[in-house]
Amino acid sequence: MSSAAEKSRRNSETAAPEDAGDVAVAAPKPTPRRNDSASLAKEIAEKLTYAIGKDPATARRHDWLEAVTLAVRDRIVDHWLASNSRNVQSGAKRVCYLSMEFLIGRLLRDAIINLGLSEAVRDALSAYDVDIDLLETLEPDAALGNGGLGRLAACFAESMASVGIQGFGYGIRYVHGFFRQEIVGGEQVELPENWLAHGNPWEFERRERSFEIGFGGKVTTIEEAGKPPRQVWRPAERILAVAYDTPVVGWKGTRVNTLRLWSAQALDPILLDAFNSGDHIGALLEANRAQSITQVLYPADSHLAGQELRLRQEFFFSSASLQDIIRHHLKRNGGDLSTLPDKVSIQLNDTHPAVSVAEMMRLLVDVHGLGWDESWDITKRVFSYTNHTLLPEALETWPVNLFERLLPRQMQIIYAINAQIIREATQKGLDGAKVSAISLIDEGSGRRVRMGSLAFVGSHAINGVSALHTELMKKTVFNQFHELYPERIQNKTNGVTPRRWLLECNPGLTDLVTEAIGPGFKDDITKISGIDKLADDAGFREKFMAVKLANKQRLAKTIEERLAITVDPTAMFDVQVKRIHEYKRQFLNLVETVALYDQIRSHPEIAWQPRVKIFAGKAAPSYANAKQIIHLANDVARVINADPSVQNLLKVVFLPNYNVSLAELIMPAADLSEQISTAGLEASGTGNMKFALNGALTIGTLDGANVEMLEHIGEDNIFIFGLTAAEVAARRAEGQSGREIIDASPILKGALDSISHGVFGEPGRYNNLVDNLYGNDWWMIAADFEAYWQTQRRLDALWQDSDAWGTKAVRNTARMAWFSSDRSIREYAKDIWDAPTSV
Ligand SMILES: *Cc1c(COP(=O)(O)O)cnc(C)c1O
């Protein structure tokens, strides 16, 4: 052997990795992970050993959870990288969903089911005598959202991956999500939530993906010879937005999309000069101030918090997302921004990211040098906006002076857009009052920027989230805009993902449906209608109700463990779980509960049906009436559960800390779903859909998506009562009080007297809630009580006929497929985004 060859051989044996390039050996490629249980078992042990540094013999349960998560995650990464390279090759349109909230919940079971790994993981862990069901409950519940709006974003993200859309979620990586609720002495106590305490194995920090975000400072005009003057924003404060990516696994793992959450960091982590001169606190102050932006989620739902930090959060994640979108587009499309609307759609989930409209204009005009008109055209074609509420207290506006101080250039741009919109309107012949209705600036009570109007004018499509809500939007908040731009408003009724809200949360029902009609409904939920014909089949119905009973037993066990309340799983489980809000009318349900309690005691001769009334939900910390409702629910539960005279007929349960995981336990166990909002006020609701899909009957008003559920499920299978939206509006306009109604109804009067006279807690404790009914009865609780009471009694009668009840329960599950978020997403893709599916 020549000495050179000898040297080369020695080198190849001993070469340090950095020398590897010199040697003619193909670079090793990672082997895609295999899905059999033996491979999984081996890899889980390897993760435990080499990633976590533990021995299987001494590992704690949390160590196992992390090891399983990492092993499953490897399989996601294989699909993720494949999806990403398909994205580059196809160049298909990207859909960017901007949402201040993603109420994700736990991810392990979601990933395991979507990847088809259930059996393999269970078998793999049995070799170590570890139970996957138990591990799954140890995962923290990622609560980066308040309620329906945030959960919708999470369902949509999963559906985009499942139907094959190149989807990108953009949001905020809150260090502390939605607060943890405890009930102490019957009252809500808010405790900090710390989902990142043990690290987060699902996210990948992308330090290289970071953008500068400015606040404050000045705008200067730059004049150069022969060029039009340019505006340059010089922010006084600059911070960094750093990306954290979480893979979003679609059904069967065919596509894995990305949820990109931004975290705020200081440009300089410490001011060394200050530190060295002894100011140790001051040296860190700036970093703390920067990081504070993404520390906490605002816990207000359907209500504007109105604090400066909130506006900072909104701009922070909007600007970071737009900079990222533009960077990506320029890189992939030869630096040409004119094609942006062909390649990207940006959906604004409510007005929280509405400042994006002004920021996009700034980036296009000031930073990338495009003309105003071209930029405005691009902006409108790129953006679309989803409205989520008509409640006046929730419509977002910001004081002009705050906006100007924090975002001076964006404020100038808003003025310029406003001038243009008003010009257009005047040309179309709108008069003074109508023009001020469409102005982006509310000149009424102190000058304020109207974020809904900004989102509207900057979008080519504006959608409501149920048919009724969309019609009301046209008549109320956006009435003038709708006259001016009649083609822009459209409806996209919400949906929920059937993977999480059926396959994952209700394995018993999933197996039963599979046994009856085969597994095809898992790929295409519309096939679940195949069980409709089995609703009259006694054998199937019995199995269906047996699954329900098993789910109720599971919930009863949790109620016993958490609250030491024993409930009978054969009683009707009558459930209202959702954010606590006056318009959702938990108070109406509680008044009916108290009335029922009184009637059971005074009329023992009537065949009352055993019920368990189950409540759960959080109140915004500053919302006094909502907190009173929680207090009342707990007071009512304490008194009724301790009264031996109603023991077998009525129990009341308030389960603390409602979140996605608790919802997954509760929905499959419900017999009756309470969707009783004051008509015209619930934009859609999605809790209503989850319940019905799992075979609960609905008692509800003609509100939000209930209206469409009635159409799909059929009037024999849903229990509708109460005033319509139009009747509510008329009563409110007349300013009718509830007094006459109360005086005419001994049952209602009796219940309200019990509540105010101290049967449930101190006398007078609930005067405020009760007095509102005698007053203008704003939420129509007195007005709807009688109809609600009668409908509940019809349900009692139905409950006695278990065959009839079972038939309706089956029909509910069979007929809810349309309310899948896959259907919603396909409609958005076709009508708003013009984006391909199945890519
Ligand atoms: C579905 C869901 C909601 C929304 O419920 P609504 O009844 O539509 O208000 C809120 N919170 C959680 C945790 C949910 O899963």
UniProtKB/TrEMBL annotation:
Transferase found in the keyword field: yes
GO cellular component: cytoplasm
Keyword set, alphabetical order: Allosteric enzyme, Carbohydrate metabolism, Cytoplasm, Glycosyltransferase, Pyridoxal phosphate, Transferase
Main subcellular localisation: cytoplasm
Entry annotated with the keyword Amino-acid biosynthesis: no
Compartments where found: Cytoplasm
Modified residues (N6-(pyridoxal phosphate)lysine): 690
InterPro entries for the chain: Glycg_phsphrylas, Glyco_trans_35, Pyridoxal_P_attach_site
Enzyme class: transferase
Residue ranges, annotated region (Disordered): 1-38
Function, as annotated: Allosteric enzyme that catalyzes the rate-limiting step in glycogen catabolism, the phosphorolytic cleavage of glycogen to produce glucose-1-phosphate, and plays a central role in maintaining cellular and organismal glucose homeostasis. Phosphorylase is an important allosteric enzyme in carbohydrate metabolism. Enzymes from different sources differ in their regulatory mechanisms and in their natural substrates. However, all known phosphorylases share catalytic and structural properties.
Protein name (Swiss-Prot/TrEMBL): Alpha-1,4 glucan phosphorylase
